[in-house]
């Protein structure tokens, strides 16, 4: 059906609600998903979340591959909830659904067009156009096994886009590719998604894919939406420890009271520049943390005793994981924190190789850590 026929068939319904409108409820013995998901036409939504959060389940439910216990899937006003996958008209780029091995690249792309009712010649003409668009015109007659991973991925993308679906689903589209190919395909995918008129939902583990490809992030944990928003906003203002780790920020929750935030666990107070009162999140970059071997002179106010729990190399910097030593517990006779158990907030600090050497940072080293009040972002919880 063409877009116009589609509109005519579904009348004002279609005009009323463009894009994706879904509530996905899936129940399994040890897991349940309940996720409201929408995407406007032209919008790319990335589903992010830890392993087992339910991202693939959500995508498969949209595709009709996993049955819904409750909820609905509507695309451009059309109710797909009870339709089998092949009648949904949804474009899919899934790892285990990539290409038909016995068909050429051209025939793979033409397949969906034929299924949509295009004549053989017309389908091949449009398929050739799409292969050209993804830069694979000269591979039209190649079988999938003769294509590289990146090429196969681009054919799969061309096949999905050629039918101009109202909804495009991409499951880890770059995960099987090596680092170099990944860069290339990411750039190509970005271009094609920008020109795509329908709604797109992308599942990824890779924060870079999510940050560069998506207009909006939807973070899923344990089958529930825990945070959503434009990538920059989510990256600046994480609301769960998973998101904070993903974007490399230190995150705490606490209560603000006159420019001081008492952390939720009651062990530390942090000076911050804020007019907020009440429950807040508090975030700062690992690079904003300064480390000292002994208590620094002039004693900055946000100063903790901590113990190094891990030292991780990251290019030309080192990320130091710290367990803060709670200030209201005894810190040992010489005040160096050695006698105290960890258990205060965890902090990440980024330092240079020279600092690692000068401070002698190894697992178990006691240190003093500080962060300036002006480096701490505070936002409502
Ligand atoms: N076919 C299945 N049958 C039963 N349980 C399943 C099936 N597929 C996934 N699960 C379970 O459902 C939950 C959600 O899995 P899902 O694959 O959707 O998570 P995910 O967020 O995509 O994880 P990952 O990032 O590891 O791919 C997990 O507990 C998983 O073990």
TrEMBL record:
It comes from the Bacteria. This is ABC transporter ATP-binding protein. Residues 297-380 form the Mop domain. Keywords: ATP-binding, Cell membrane, Ion transport, Iron, Iron transport, Membrane, Molybdenum, Nucleotide-binding, Transport. PANTHER family: SPERMIDINE/PUTRESCINE IMPORT ATP-BINDING PROTEIN POTA, SPERMIDINE_PUTRESCINE IMPORT ATP-BINDING PROTEIN POTA. The keyword ATP-binding applies. The keyword Phosphoprotein does not apply.
């Amino acid at each position: 059906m063409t877009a116009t026929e589609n509109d005519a068939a579904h009348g004002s319904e279609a005009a009323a609600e463009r894009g994706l409108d879904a509530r996905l409820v899936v129940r399994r013995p040890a897991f349940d998903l309940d996720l409201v998901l929408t995407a406007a036409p032209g919008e790319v939504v990335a589903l992010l979340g830890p392993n087992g959060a339910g991202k693939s389940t959500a995508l498969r439910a949209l595709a009709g591959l996993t049955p819904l216990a409750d909820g609905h899937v509507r695309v451009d006003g059309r109710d797909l909830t009870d339709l089998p996958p092949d009648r949904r008209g949804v474009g899919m780029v899934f790892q285990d659904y990539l290409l038909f091995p016995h068909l050429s690249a051209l025939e793979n792309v033409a397949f969906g067009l034929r299924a949509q009712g295009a004549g053989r010649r017309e389908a091949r003409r449009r398929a050739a156009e799409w292969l050209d668009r993804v830069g694979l015109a000269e591979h039209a007659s190649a079988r999938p096994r003769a294509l590289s991973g990146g090429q196969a991925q681009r054919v799969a993308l061309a096949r999905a886009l050629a039918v101009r679906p109202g909804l495009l689903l991409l499951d880890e589209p770059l995960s099987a590719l090596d680092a170099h190919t990944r860069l290339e395909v990411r750039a190509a995918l970005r271009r094609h998604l920008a020109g795509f008129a329908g709604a797109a939902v992308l599942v990824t583990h890779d924060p870079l894919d999510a940050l560069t490809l998506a207009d909006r992030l939807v973070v899923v944990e344990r089958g529930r939406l825990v945070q959503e928003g434009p990538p920059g906003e989510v990256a600046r203002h994480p609301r769960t420890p998973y998101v904070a780790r993903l974007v490399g920020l230190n995150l705490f929750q606490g209560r603000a009271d006159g420019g001081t935030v008492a952390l939720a666990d009651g062990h530390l107070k942090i000076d911050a520049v804020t007019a907020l009162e009440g429950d807040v999140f508090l975030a700062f970059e690992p690079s904003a943390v300064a480390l000292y071997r002994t208590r620094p002179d002039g004693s900055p106010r946000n100063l903790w005793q901590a113990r190094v729990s891990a030292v991780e190399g990251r290019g030309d910097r080192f990320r130091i994981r710290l367990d803060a030593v709670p200030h209201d517990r005894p810190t040992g006779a010489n005040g160096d924190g050695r006698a105290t158990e960890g258990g205060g907030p965890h902090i990440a600090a980024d330092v240079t190789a020279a600092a690692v050497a000068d401070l002698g940072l190894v697992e178990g080293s006691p240190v003093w850590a500080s962060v300036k009040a002006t480096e701490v972002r505070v936002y409502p919880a």
